[in-house]
Amino acid sequence: SQQGEEDPQALSIQEGENATMNCSYKTSINNLQWYRQNSGRGLVHLILIRSNEREKHSGRLRVTLDTSKKSSSLLITASRAADTASYFCATDNGYALNFGKGTSLLVTP
Amino acid sequence: GAGVSQSPRYKVTKRGQDVALRCDPISGHVSLYWYRQALGQGPEFLTYFNYEAQQDKSGLPNDRFSAERPEGSISTLTIQRTEQRDSAMYRCASSFGQGTTEAFFGQGTRLTVV
Asked: Which positions in chain A touch B99 (Cβ < 8 Å)?
């Protein structure tokens, strides 16, 4: 079963703008991860945030986690055309990752 | 190898045939996962191995699906008596430790049942 739910399902922005994607989940987690998938290819790990963390940065990525609301957000700043991809949040229940349906991001030049 | 390797990349099979999908994880990775991904959807968990032990197979859709990892390295996902609804991308992932840290995904096997 898929636990995470990303919002919006699709997002279209212009290069240079920021993109924000949200993820809501249902049960308690050990950590939450974000992955990127380009055009149906393999998934690539972006960032992991632990349940006792509230915010994490990696380059142009910023992830927040609110365990009380069971939600997370991924912010991509100064987007580039190469950021066009599907983005998935994945919740970790201790051994397996459960993925949401993803947000499809289109960045136009 | 450098990454998770899956074979074959593409498999077309006739309904009713059995298929075996192979996953070669990153050397030394303890955990191995199988996922299925339909077009436009996120990966759906199928099963998980810790070394050679199948810790969770709750995501396997029915008893036609089985998986093994006999020596704690290469894994095989077998689908017996394939049906058209089995058509999907099957993805394997591995991670270094027990439980999930960063998972590394293979390129997947695209299965088409005709």
From this structure: 30, 92, 94-95
- Three-state SS string over chain A comes to CCCCEEECCEEEEECCCCEEEEEECCCCCCEEEEEEECCCCCEEEEEEEECCCCEEEECCEEEEEECCCCEEEEEECCCCHHHCEEEEEEEECCCCEEECCCEEEEEEC
> Could you report the per-residue pLDDT of B53-108, keeping only the tens digit for each?
999 999 999 999 999 999 999 999 999 999 999 999 999 999 988 656 789 999 99
Token reading at A63? 């992830």
| Nearest by CB: B43 against A33, A43, A95 | A43
Q: Chain B within 8 Å of A34 (Cβ-Cβ)?
A: no
Q: Is A99's Cβ below 8 Å from some Cβ in B? A: yes
